[in-house]
Automatic annotation (TrEMBL):
Belongs to the PIH1 family. It comes from Henningerozyma blattae (strain ATCC 34711 / CBS 6284 / DSM 70876 / NBRC 10599 / NRRL Y-10934 / UCD 77-7) (Yeast). InterPro entries: PIH1/Kintoun_subfamily (IPR050734), Pih1_CS_Ascomycota (IPR041441), PIH1_N (IPR012981). One of its GO terms (biological process) is box C/D snoRNP assembly. Residues 19-176 form the PIH1 N-terminal domain. Residues 291-381 form the Pih1 Ascomycota CS domain. GO terms for cellular component: cytoplasm; R2TP complex; ribonucleoprotein complex. PANTHER family: PIH1 DOMAIN-CONTAINING PROTEIN 1 (PTHR22997). This is PIH1 N-terminal domain-containing protein. Pfam families: PIH1, Pih1_fungal_CS.
Length: 381
C-alpha cells in the first residue's frame, strides 16, 4: 500500500485557511490527516547495498552505515479487514494473502552514540495491530521482515539480515516526526480481496484454483482482442483467377497427363521405402535435479509457548505450496518433502527433535510459515 507522506508545512495561518477552503471545495477528497505516532520499538541493522538507488533521490545512501527503523503505531492507520486469528491468518500469510498495512516515511540522516552518520526510517501500523504483535511472537517477527522490506522498497536499498538487532529503546531520535497522510488512502477498503479469499476458502478449498483459471481466461481474452484488432484474413493460397487459367490450360492436355503426377509418385515412394526401417522418435528425457535443504535450529527467545525455532532454506523451493510438513510421533521427528516433483526429484527430509518433545501425554504445539524472498520455511515448536 502506498501513502503520500510529506513534512508538516510551516506556512502562515492565512495560507492554511486558503488551503482549507480549496480542500472543502473538493469535498475533502484530498484532505490530509496529521497523526502523532506512538513509538513501540526499534530495529537496527546496516545498509548492505544502495547500487540501484536512483540519483533523483534527495541524497545518496552510503553502504555499511547503520540504519534504525522506528516501529510505531497510530489509530489513523488502517488495519487488515480480517482480524488476527492464528488458525486463519497464518495460512493466508504463507500464500501472500494477508499482511499488516505499514506507512513508511522517507529516510533521514542522524548520528549514533559515537557521532557517526546513520539513517532513520519510521514504520507506522494500526494500534490494534500493535496489540497483536505484543501477544504473538511469531507475528512480531513477520512484521519485522515486512518493515525491512517496506524501507527497502521505498528507498531502493538493501538492508542486511545478518546484522539485525533490537536496541533497548523505543525510538531513535528525540521525537518521531508527525505523519501527514491523504484521507482517501486511509478510507479506502484495503483488503477486499483478502476477505473474499477468506470467505471462499471456508466454503470451498478449490476456489483458489477457480480464481486462477478465471484470471488466465481473462488474460487470454484480452490477448485475443488485441490480436483480433490488428489481424487481417489471409489471402487464399491459390488465387481464383490463377486457378481458372490453369484449368483452361489443362483442358487442352491429354487426360493421362492430368491424372498421373502426384499420386503415382507417392505410391512409388511408399513401395520403394517399404523395407526401410522406420525410426521412432523417443520422448525427450527430462533430467531432474535434487532439492537441497539447509537446516538451522536454535532456541527461541521467549520459551513460554515455543521452545525451538527451525529454519529450512532451499533455493529450489519458490512457494509454501511446494512443501509438505508432518510430524511422526513414533520416532519423534518432523518429515518435510517437496511436492514440485515435475521439475525436481522428491526429497524427504527427516528432522529428529530433542527429547523434550517426545512426551506422549503432552500435545506438541507448532506453527510454520514460508518467506518467499528468502526461500525459507520457519517452524516454531
Amino acid at each position: 500500500m502506498n501513502f503520500l507522506l510529506r513534512p508538516i508545512s510551516t506556512t502562515s495561518k492565512s495560507h492554511d485557511r486558503i488551503i482549507d477552503n480549496q480542500i472543502n471545495e473538493k469535498n475533502n477528497t484530498n484532505a490530509i490527516i496529521s497523526t502523532e505516532p506512538t513509538p513501540l520499538f526499534v530495529i537496527k541493522s546496516k545498509v548492505q547495498s544502495s547500487d540501484n538507488r536512483p540519483n533523483t533521490f534527495t541524497f545518496p545512501i552510503l553502504q555499511d552505515k547503520k540504519i534504525f527503523i522506528n516501529v510505531c503505531c497510530a489509530d489513523e492507520i488502517p488495519k487488515p479487514d480480517v482480524d488476527f486469528n492464528p488458525n486463519i491468518v497464518y495460512p493466508l500469510i504463507m500464500n501472500n494473502k494477508w499482511e499488516i498495512p505499514i506507512v513508511t516515511t522517507s529516510i533521514r540522516n542522524d548520528t549514533d552514540k559515537k557521532g557517526n552518520l546513520c539513517y532513520v526510517c519510521d514504520c507506522c501500523i494500526n494500534t490494534a495491530c500493535a496489540d497483536w504483535i505484543s501477544k504473538d511472537l511469531q507475528l512480531r517477527e513477520i512484521l519485522n521482515e515486512w518493515c525491512l522490506e517496506s524501507c527497502e522498497l521505498r528507498e531502493v536499498i538493501e538492508i542486511s539480515r545478518d546484522n539485525i538487532a533490537f536496541p533497548k529503546m523505543k525510538k531513535k531520535g528525540n521525537k518521531i516526526p508527525t505523519l501527514e497522510i491523504l484521507s482517501e488512502d486511509l478510507t479506502q477498503n484495503l483488503n477486499i480481496q483478502g476477505q473474499q479469499i477468506l470467505n471462499a476458502e471456508k466454503d470451498d478449498p478449490s476456489s483458489i484454483l477457480t480464481m486462477k483459471r478465471d484470471l488466465l481466461r481473462k488474460e487470454e481474452e484480452e490477448t485475443s482482442t488485441l490480436l483480433g484488432s490488428n489481424t487481417e484474413e489471409l489471402p487464399p493460397l491459390f488465387p481464383t483467377h490463377k486457378r481458372n487459367i490453369a484449368s483452361t490450360d489443362d483442358a487442352n492436355k491429354d487426360n493421362k497427363s492430368k491424372k498421373n503426377p502426384l499420386i503415382q509418385e507417392i505410391n512409388q515412394l511408399s513401395i520403394n521405402d517399404k523395407d526401410r526401417p522406420v525410426k521412432k522418435l523417443k520422448n525427450p528425457t527430462i533430467i531432474k535435479e535434487d532439492v537441497i535443504f539447509d537446516v538451522q535450529m536454535r532456541k527461541t527467545k521467549n520459551t513460554d509457548v515455543y521452545k525451538l525455532r527451525i529454519e529450512i532454506k532451499s533455493d529450489q523451493i519458490t512457494s509454501g505450496l511446494d512443501l509438505s510438513l508432518s510430524y511422526e510421533p513414533k520416532n519423534n521427528q518432523l518429515l518435510l518433502k517437496n511436492l514440485n516433483t515435475q521439475i525436481f526429484n522428491e526429497n524427504i527430509l527427516k528432522i529428529p527433535l530433542p527429547n523434550i518433545f517426545d512426551n506422549k501425554d503432552n500435545k506438541i504445539i507448532w506453527k510454520c510459515f514460508y518467506t518467499k524472498k528468502d526461500h525459507k520455511l520457519i517452524i516454531f515448536i
